[in-house]
Design a protein that fits this description.
The complex is a heterodimer.
Chain A (H helix, E strand, L loop, with lengths): L9 E7 L6 E2 L4 E7 L2 E6 L4 E6 L6 E3 L5 E5 L4 E3 L32 H10 L17 H10 L6 H19 L2 E9 L1 H13 L8 H15 L5 E4 L2 E4 L5 E3 L1 E2 L5 E2 L2 E2 L7 H17 L1 E3 H5 L3 E5 L18 E5 L3 E7 L2 E15 L5 H16 L5
Parallel strand pairs in A: 4-16, 12-17, 17-18
Antiparallel strand pairs in A: 1-3, 1-6, 2-5, 3-4, 5-7, 7-8, 9-20, 10-11, 12-15, 13-14, 18-20, 19-20
Helix pairs in contact in A: 1-2, 5-8
Chain B lengths: L2 H15 L14 H5 L3 H15 L14 H12 L6
Helix pairs in contact in B: 1-3, 1-4
Classes of the chains: A alpha+beta, B mainly alpha.
Chain lengths: 375, 86
């Protein structure tokens, strides 16, 4: 059971999408796990063959529990636990509870609406009988199951307490420093409006995407903010994976990653961001998106705040906050004029960096936003 | 399309984004953002849903004309060639 963020302690295996004997490739989705963040698709990180399933559907197990064994083409791998004991190449570990191979038709298909409803109502999809085409579980099936089921899990309450635990730990363990800088968005917005005018409706971009890209590029200049604090030392991130804090209807939030955001062209980044927000709100994120952000952005501009000083999400070492972009007085070359401004903030882990580096980072974000055509 | 039909399309699009809303509770003259907790991504999806459903092309400069229910009905009626008063 992978750790899908510092605030996760356990998860429930909802569905196996691969069965013993199935070949798997790195990046394949093998299972769906239910957490307080919704249904998460579990990816594999190795090529090989799914050997045995250890955790059966419906079971709730703590983080670190082996879910299944994969016979790798390289060293054998267990899904998915950093604590797993390495096994000799090509040798599957003894299975705890070998599962009989299920015929492919036994795999429950679930409509996205049904998955969302099940997540909202706390219904275990493993216990729902599908009546849709090909036995797919439909919205109505979930509703029937919810009425028949005992008291549903209060997902919002579970998420609240998970956030409480993670944030309390951060404030207790992480010595935060806070910086802010006001950035002139005239050039960025003028460029964006001109660009959007040329684009079809479905290809238009939001200002938030420019902010995300500017942060990603600025992290190349100040890589000390991009990574994790592990075992008393900073570990540089393997890429620039920007966690985007996304608020959920009904309360709570998740901060899944936009992978390698510094390498994505703006239109691709916009599409990925749109997709990420939609899936976060539908409760359909992937394990890697939750487990590997190397920094987080919290954009509270839509809520009308001027600035947001956020709490670091451990083991990350920094979080960037944005307030709203609004017209405010700005002293330019021609005197005082109204310009669209945004306040960018940085909360940094003082164990990993000092305010000096943090300041250089905010300056770099500003610099990138002054040349939007280069983003 | 009549203004009533357009209103129905708008409310459907909003309900997809904010499933918890009660369509009857939408105040016609108050911005969706203020009464429905709609963020910029939600609003973008709302505009795209209207585009998909009504087949109208909406320039970005016109987005503010979709901020309230009354304004959106009037704007989309003009774009779709709706008969007034029906």
């Amino acid at each position: 059971m992978p750790m899908l963020g510092a605030d996760m302690e356990a998860g429930t295996l909802v569905e196996w999408l691969k069965h013993p004997g199935d070949p798997v490739k790195r990046g394949d989705i093998v299972a769906v796990v239910d957490t307080q963040k919704g249904a998460i698709e579990i990816e594999v990180f190795e090529d090989g063959v799914l050997e045995t399933i250890v955790v059966q559907r419906g079971a709730k197990v703590p983080v670190g529990t082996i879910l299944a064994h994969i016979r790798g083409t390289g060293p054998a791998a267990a899904i998915v636990t950093p604590a797993a004991t390495p096994t000799p190449a090509g040798m599957p570990r003894p299975a705890v509870t070998p599962a009989a191979p299920a015929p492919p038709s036994a795999r429950a298909r679930v409509t996205p609406m049904a998955r969302k409803l099940a997540a909202d109502l706390g219904v275990d999809l493993a216990r729902v009988t599908g009546t849709g085409s090909g036995g797919a579980i439909t919205h109505d099936d979930v509703q029937r199951a919810a009425q028949a089921a005992p008291a549903p899990v209060d997902r919002a309450a579970a998420m609240r307490s998970a956030i409480a635990a993670a944030m309390a730990r951060s404030k207790r363990d992480v010595p935060h420093y806070y910086l802010s800088a006001t950035i002139d968005m005239s050039a960025a917005l003028a460029w964006l409006h001109a660009e959007n005018e040329k684009r079809s409706m479905t290809e238009r971009m939001l200002p938030a995407v420019l902010l995300i890209k500017a942060v990603a590029l600025a992290l190349r200049d100040v890589p000390e903010l991009n990574g994790h604090w592990v075992d008393g030392a900073f570990r540089k991130g393997p890429g620039i994976h920007i966690g985007c804090a996304i608020s959920l209807r009904g309360g709570g939030l998740v901060a899944p990653a936009l992978h390698d955001a510094d390498h994505s062209a703006l239109p691709a980044l916009m599409r990925n961001f749109q997709d990420l927000v939609a899936r976060a709100r539908a409760g359909a994120l992937r394990s890697s998106e939750l487990s590997d952000p190397t920094i987080t952005i919290s954009n509270l501009g839509d809520q009308g705040v001027d600035s947001a000083f956020a709490i670091i999400y451990p083991p990350q070492v920094a979080i960037v906050g944005f307030g709203r972009i609004s017209n405010r007085p700005w002293a330019g070359a021609g005197g005082i004029e109204a310009r669209p401004l945004v306040t960018a903030t940085l909360s940094g882990d003082h164990r990993a960096t000092d305010g000096h580096r943090g300041g250089m980072f905010l300056t770099a974000v500003d610099r990138w936003l002054q040349t939007p055509e280069k983003l | 399309m009549t203004p009533d039909e357009i209103r129905k399309v708008i409310v459907e699009a909003l309900s997809k984004i904010a499933p918890e809303i009660n369509p009857a509770s939408i105040v016609p003259g108050v911005s969706f953002r203020d009464q429905l907790d709609i963020d910029s991504m939600d609003f973008l999806n709302f505009v795209l849903a209207l585009h998909g459903r009504l087949g109208v092309d909406i320039p970005e400069a016109d987005y503010p004309r979709l901020y309230t229910l009354d304004d959106a009905v009037a704007y989309l009626a003009s774009k779709t060639g709706s008969r007034p008063g029906t």
